[in-house]
Design a protein that fits this description.
about 15% strand; Heat Shock Protein 90; 8 helices; rod-shaped; three-stranded antiparallel beta sheet
Amino acid sequence: MKGRILRIAVLFAAAVIAAAVLFTVNRNKAVNEDVQAENILALNEIEQLYKAGDSAAAEKKVTELEDKLRNTSPKTANNAEAVVFAGISIGFMGVLLLYVYFSILRPFDKLKHFADEIAKGNFSIPLDYERSNYFGSFTWAFDSMRREITKARTCEREAIENNKTVIATLSHDIKTPIASIRAYAEGLEANLDSTPEKRAKYLSVLMRKCDEVSALTNDLFLHSLADLDKLKMSSEEIELSGFIREAVEEISGEKGDVRFRDSGREIYINGDRNRLMQLCENLINNARKYAGTNIEITLSEKDGYAAVAFRDHGGGIPDEDMPFITDKFYRGHNCGSEQGSGLGLYIVSYICGQLGGELSLRNHPEGGLDAETRFPIRKTYQS
């Protein structure tokens, strides 16, 4: 394009110069024709004087005409106007070319170079742009597209890495309880359970390891559904106090390590029973796994929300882990050798959000972790 613009400029300058030369030639021709006319008039006057018999006057006119012709050369017109016109035209063209170069050609070349880099897959190169030139809005949109593509590619890489991480984590975490199940099953097969106590111990370990595998696969299943936005949430009216009592009874069983204290009021929310049960199960099992203490569940009302707090008496969560503890696959520094997928609190937070609530975590001043879930209250009654 620059070559085409340059050729146009050269042709324009040549046309202006040719027009100026043609104008000058024509004007000089007109001036010389005027001089010839004057000389013809002078010769005609001399001829008339000779015819009238006035030879002295005629000789005088001849002498004057000879002197005039001898002392003058062919006249040329004043060509300053043509020169000024040509100079102004060429100068204007030069200014126009500079404007076109800086406002159109150079930004376009930068944009073309940027597009070539993008085509090569180089998304890290930024595009400098000025809103004042003709490509300002376009280059801004192009650079925004680059940033969005970069962000999308980063998210894609993170998703791939997360998938690799979860596969590796689950492979490791499932392998351990499966190995234990096999070992104890072989023990049963070899009749190593020689006493009722040993048999009960073997069966207890087998059940516990099966529960670990079930919890891991359940977390992975819920994560997959949440990632695909297919984790369905039904909505029904639930009386929280009675629901939590049922959940504690079902999850705690004969262990008796979970205590529930209600608010003395019937608090109703809209929610999904199955998802709320998963939420309670995840929080209780997390506390059992990492704290290993009794668990206290408290139901209260706070600013139009039903607050259900799950508190253990363990070591809590390290401060450096707290901002990331609800992220997918994140496991805190205090998890030690405990098996887990890093999805438990992520799923709890996701369920809370889908039900219009929220999850907040804090280390209790007297020790332990306080995990509080909040849900909008539909209605309340005094018990």
